[in-house]
Amino acid sequence: MDTLPNTDSPASGPRTLRRGLQVLRTLQQSPESGVSVTGLARITGLQRPTIYRLLAALVEGGFARNVGGSKRYAATQNGAVSEPGQDPRIELALPVLKNLASVTGDAVFLVVREGHESLSLWREIGAYPVQILATFAGKRQPLGVGSGGMALLAGLDDDTVEKTIAHNSDRLEQYGGMTEREMRQLVQNTRTRGYAVVGNYAVRGALGVGCALYDSSKQPYLAISVTAITERMPSPRQREIAKLIQDGLKTIAAKT
């Protein structure tokens, strides 16, 4: 998959790259609160449609991120994805993530909880030709809008779940029109099923399966999810993938 848009002109590649780097440098020089598309257009002198295309490529590549579901964008730390060793949870889970990506052929994500948000620590891409790159290392979003985050949310006590949903209530609609009621239902479904299934919220046409690992205090410590196009995720395969993730989590638990 191309990370930068192509045009028919032979010179368009270098020009597009220069423009992309110009946008990235602008984001890197901006505060953590980010810059809007209008602001980027004003600073760089580029047209808004061009900015949108470049931002899509930068976000997909893990070099930029949306700020809290708003219309502002910021550069990811150091303009790159995480490296093994930056977080002990990555090193702990990496063999399992790689194995899951190899076995399923789909994208695999390592997710942790930070307050009322989920934070993606790692993304491992499978070999299937169509990948759902729903998130990337360093991306934050409301806890529960993705399958990994939902697995973490459902593992919390009821009071914390309600506080988290209430805190994120003004942001949920930005994720496929999710409502507080739907979020609560997903929590209940996850608890009943034993694993999270979330589709068509954070990314249209995608469905993810996620499971959480708990620490000695029975608190969700991390979650692993597998995401694919909806057509690849019928109910029987959802169950199969959940079992693969749970087996992988047991391997991680044995190391801790």
TrEMBL record:
Domain IclR-ED: 72-256
Pfam family, one: IclR_C
Swiss-Prot/TrEMBL keywords: DNA-binding, Transcription, Transcription regulation
Example GO biological process: negative regulation of DNA-templated transcription
Organism: Pollutimonas nitritireducens
Protein name as catalogued: IclR family transcriptional regulator
Domain HTH iclR-type: start-end pairs: 14-77
InterPro entries referenced in this protein's UniProt entry, alphabetically: GAF-like_dom_sf (IPR029016), HTH_MetabolicPath_Reg (IPR050707), Tscrpt_reg_IclR_C (IPR014757), Tscrpt_reg_IclR_N (IPR005471), WH-like_DNA-bd_sf (IPR036388), WH_DNA-bd_sf (IPR036390)
Domain of life: Bacteria
GO molecular function, one term: DNA-binding transcription factor activity
Residue ranges of coiled coil: none
